[in-house]
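User: Could you go from structure to sequence for me? I need the amino acid at each position, not a summary. Structure tokens:
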């Protein structure tokens, strides 16, 4: 796992993937789905690091702002924001910002006690 995981997440990121909230394959799925789910674990961990570092460096941003700053797809960011929130590492600011389409979207920040 990455240095960020050791420093900011206490080396526990992979632990979260064993929880039902992070299930990536169903019991009835073929073996290829399980293989893809295993690959997604490492990818998700990289996304966690990128997103948290972005929010630390840039301050509070919306999903599209994070995507623009990091080069990640907004759908990747959206999924990771939900997971990082469940991990209690980020939180909503209570504010909205404009998305790239001009609509309001929620603004996220690194949790103050993290």
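Assistant: Here is the amino acid at each position, in order:
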């Amino acid at each position: 796992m990455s240095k960020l995981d050791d420093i900011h997440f206490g080396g526990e990121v992979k632990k979260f993937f064993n929880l039902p909230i992070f299930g990536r394959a169903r019991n009835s799925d073929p073996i290829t789905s399980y293989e893809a789910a295993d690959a997604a674990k490492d990818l998700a961990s990289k996304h966690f690091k990128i997103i948290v570092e972005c929010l630390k460096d840039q301050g509070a941003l919306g999903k599209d702002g994070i995507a623009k700053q990091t080069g990640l797809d907004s759908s990747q960011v959206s999924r990771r924001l939900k997971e990082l929130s469940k991990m209690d590492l980020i939180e909503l600011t209570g504010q909205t910002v404009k998305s790239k389409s001009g609509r309001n979207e929620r603004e996220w920040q690194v949790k103050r006690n993290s």
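One structural detail worth keeping in mind: Residues 87 and 105 are 21 Å apart (CA to CA).
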